[in-house]
Amino acid sequence: MGPLAGLKIIEIESIGPGPFCGMMLADMGAEVIRVVRNAESVAKSAQSPVMLRGRRSVVLDLKSTEGKETLLQLCESADALIEGFRPGVMERLGLGPEICLGRNPRLVFGRMTGWGQEGPLAQAAGHDINYIALSGALHACGRAGQGPQAPLNLVGDFGGGAMMLAFGIVCALLETQRSGQGQVVDAAMVDGSALLMAMFHDFKHRGQFTHERGKHFIASGAHFYDCYETADGEHISIGAIEPQFYQLLINKAGLDPEQFADYGLGGKAFDPQHYDRLKEILRTVFKQKTQARWVEIMEGSDVCFAPVLSIWDAPNHPHNVARQTFVEIDGTVQPAPAPRFSRTPASVKQGLQGQHSDSTDLLAEWGKACRAEADTAPRHMRCDYSGLFEQ
Length: 391
Description:
This protein is α/β, with parallel strands linked by helices.
């Protein structure tokens, strides 16, 4: 099942965004095979039962002639390949895009890097925090009067990296259906995290975003869009941006309308200079009740409210339970596949159990499937699989 069922994707072993991209594609039904360097890598996979879920692995020494040939044989029957090396590494291995597309002209060759395939920094080492620093995203994250605060590694590795690569892979595969030709997808985290800042470039264009951190209403500057501590040391989130939601916040929190009514976004007396004063009042108000009590008062209303939950607590919230936002696989609670499809639902095909595959068995399996597909595929999409995988 899943909207990508029937697609075959090779994932070259990597860390961070590469495995997450492979996980997303596998969740959507693609058959993803991880190529790992040795048995130790297979053993270590037990430490990542979430990120490595839903696909099998095969050990190949890509520095050996046999290993290279085996990968190229897999490429002949694959729809896409994902790799996360520095630019030029696959080429030095003799497995660059030209070689792989030479064996399968329809192959989509996905490349995951921090700085991109070219540019002055292309060969430099880096991590999420560096890529989002250069894109302008990190500078905007943090409280007023404080330094930049990295939002975990969600913006570079996963949002600007893995998700952009997955999007690029699917876009390229759709184009391949029309043209019959593959291509290279260059997914750079610096590019992706820059793209995620599109709305804030609009704000800047309108003169509504300043160089000073933490002053914009959606960047923790406003009293009506922030997190507040409760009486039990927990926190709640408030996002009452629109006037009608802001008015409901005043009512639900028992605020003095004389102090708050005109100071929401778009209010008659709206002025960011009042943010700090009103925020102090809200801090005092929300500290008077526990998180659970504020949930009773506000949850489910149009205040735009939610308790701030840890990853231990989030799976147990009634809304997440009702939607099955989290699932348990092989004893590990983890996020369920997303987004959802009405006709071809995504699912986790398997956990880590039984992941490792013998390369001979895998080649035979993929070869048999590809020969069957070649017989029924439209002429412009067919490849010549004669003699492939013969032992």
